Each structure stands twice: as structure tokens, then as C-alpha cells.
Amino acid sequence: MKKRVFSGIQPTGTIHIGNYLAAIRRWVIAQAEYESIFCIVDLHAITVPQEPKLLKAKNLEMAAILLAAGIDPGVSVIFVQSQIGAHAELAWILNCIIPMGWMLRMTQFKEKSQRQKEQVTTGLFDYPALMAADILLYRTNLVPVGEDQRQHVELARDVAERFNSRYGPTFELPEAVIPEVGSRIMGLKDPTKKMSKTGDEEGNVLGVLDSPDEIRAKIMKAVTDPLREIRFDPDRPGINNLLVIYELFSGESRAAIEQRFAGKGYAQFKAELAETVIEGLRPLQLRFRELMEDQRYIGRLLEEGAGRIRPVAEETLSTVKEKVGLGLPVLKGA
Ligand code: AQP
User: Pfam families this protein is in (predicted)?
Assistant: First the structure.
């Protein structure tokens, strides 16, 4: 039996190269080896305010980006989370076995709630429970994500263990798969913080759909340091981040990259990096534009994806409900 991969992405903000390098591009590779399910998590997106029409449009755009990047709907399943009601239902049941203490430890909530202050919703706090439901519904083995999601996948695993020990074997225990390089692409303007889809200042985020001119301008203005030496060094977050991006787009070894740019200036390195990123994203951007010409086709693929995978989700949910004792007992009488 092939192992099963599940991962999700929020249809919000600017889909950036961090999302692409740590998640989407690795999903494309994973689908050759594993049974793969990829989900556009719009229920997660509404944990912060969203403009309704824009959210629907973003679901479509996100699907087109995944397809353009190489997710093959003939091999993998791709669907929108809100198309399958079992996600929200299982999340509620899991809420009732997750200790508050586990949720209070989640660092992403702490960070996001500090930023959003009075806008913080119960949904944002509960985000990890919904993510656990997403993963556990499909008896997932592997969850390819960036570093920022490691703690959430670990929570999903803890929830599965707790449920299994209380109600008997039910869920697979999922494992996060995090790349050694590029698991945390940093902002271009503030390389001490991860590049994020939402709430980032202009120029900090390199979008996968950015035009060549935008890519050049953003990279040329990226923060570096006064040292002028082009070398991988985690203690120099600006240049290190740009070098990691170069490494991932070029496929060259670190030694070859350092040799290539030895004695050269930041401006030359940045110019070459920009062209490498532009070339790396070109096929995706071309295919994206073609796909967006036929939005009905994308809609059909998402419906088909949801239709293929819904029975798996419903079967898991019904097993869980049975174990927890929800619904009616076996009834006597005519
Ligand atoms: N900077 C990053 N570097 C590497 N991987 C990243 N991921 C996110 N940011 C980076 C990974 O991308 C996948 C989808 O994550 P998401 O939909 O939660 O995207 P986001 O960029 O984190 O968007 P947010 O939550 O809208 O941004 P903020 O944090 O500003 O609120 C995941 O696998 C994630 O690990």
C-alpha cells in the first residue's frame, strides 16, 4: 500500500515563493510516489476576516496555481475544504478531546493574535484542531509543510494518539515532512521573520505570480548587510535567505554558488538571482494564465476531486461518531 500524503494551503494574500518552495513544489514531487491529497483550506482562511467575493476568487486562483505548478488531477486529489462538511464536523469532535493546555502552547496563535489584537477570533485559536481534522480524516501518513506548521502537525499526531488510546485504534499517526533547505523562507525587507501571505509590507513578499519587473525590483531592494561577502551564513539572515532562494531555484550546490559569486558584488548577485527566479517561475506563470482562461474546467476538477475523496472523509467521520457514541443506539421495534 502506498503511503498517503495530505497537505493544505490557505487561499489568502499573495502566494509566495516560501509557499512554493517548501510546500507546492514538493507536493508535485510527492505525487509520483505517494497517494496525494491537496486541499485549499478556505475554512482556515476565514479564521481572519475575508472579503467574501475575493475569497471565492482566491479559491479558484489557488487551484490554478497548484495545477500550473504541476499537481496532476489525474493522479492526485485537489479540492476546496468547504466542499466537504466532514472537516468541520470532525474538528468539533476533536475539540472535545483536545486539552486547552495543548492549544495554548501553539506559537502561531500567539504570534498571530499579537498582530491582530481585538480582531482575534475563536476560530483562529481553534485553527490547529481544524488542521488536525483535515489530516486525520484521510488517514494521512505524511504531511509535507514548511517549518511554521511543524507544531500543528505534531498536535494532530498527539490528538490521534489520544483518540486511539481512548476509543481504540482509529487514526493513522501523521508525520510532518519538512525540507532540510528552504523550510522557512524569510521576508526580503525583514529577513528575521518568515515571508507571509498576509499582513506583510510591500516588497517583503515575492509572489509566484509577480511580473519579471516586480521580481527584479523586489530582489534588488532586498535587505542584505555591509559585509559584501557572498557566503551561506545563518548569522547573516539577509544574504543567507537570498542564497537559499538561489540554491533552490538553480539546483546548484552551495560550494558551486559560493565559487560563482566569489569576489562579486551584491548588485551582480541580486541581478542573477532575479533572472534565475524569473526563469524558474516562468512555466508556472504561463500555464496559470492558460488555465485561468477556462475557469469552468478548474471548477470541474475541484468538484471531481471532492467527489473522489468525500467517501473516505465520510467513512472516517462515521467511524469516529460510532466510537464516540453519537447518534442513536440500535433500535428495537418495527
Ligand atoms: N516563509 C515560508 N517559508 C517556507 N514555507 C512556508 N509556508 C508558509 N510560509 C512559508 C508553508 O506554505 C504552506 C501554506 O501555508 P499557509 O497557507 O499557512 O501560508 P502562509 O504564508 O503562512 O500564510 P498566512 O498564514 O496567511 O500568513 P501569516 O502567517 O502572515 O498569517 C505551509 O506548508 C507552510 O508551512
Answer: tRNA-synt_1b
